[in-house]
């Protein structure tokens, strides 16, 4: 192997080879890096008269993590307070720490419950939801038809089996 074929680790040679790449070597000179210095001069918020924003009044129930102390953050969301069965599940979930799997699984269940409650609420108000469009079945039929057919077959099979089991229990016969 000739000397010209061996790679060189010389920094000046590497810089010369890659000089055509915009921004190459910016980590060498700290003054040319966009994050240096970390503080902007002048500061971004001039004339701020507070060190912390004023506390937002709490008009609805706000669920807080057990990792936090009992104080709320100065600003928080109030658009969807916990209500109904999903709200009860959320209250139970927030009794557990965020590093506990039960916390997240109960929150997932609460989301699914909230979705069912929303459909029931729509029906109560006289609005029939378009479940085919809302569940994306049209797009699934167009782009992933085999998988959708498998899902529908499994769903239909599950409904039939559950229907048979419920019918046998009503008639007094039991599965052995």
Structure, explained:
By secondary structure, the protein is mostly helical. The protein has six helices and no strands. The protein is extended. The chain starts with 10 loop residues before the first helix and ends in a 5-residue tail after the last helix. The mean pLDDT is 82.
Question: What is the oligomer described by this structure?
Answer: single chain
Number of helices: 6
The unreliable regions are none
Major sheet? none
Percent of residues in helices comes to 40-55%
- Could you give the order of the helices and strands? HHHHHH
Strand content: under 5%
Distance between the termini: 79 Å
**Rg calculated over all Cα atoms:** 30 Å
Shape by Cα distribution: extended
Overall pLDDT? 82
Structural class: mainly alpha
What is the β-strand count? 0
SSE diagram, text form:
Blueprint: H1 11-17, H2 84-93, H3 101-124, H4 131-134, H5 137-143, H6 145-171
Can you summarize this structure?
The chain is mainly alpha-helical and 176 residues long. The chain has helices spanning 11-17, 84-93, 101-124, 131-134, 137-143, 145-171. The relative contact order is 0.04.
Short key terms for the protein model shown above:
single chain, mainly alpha, 176 residues
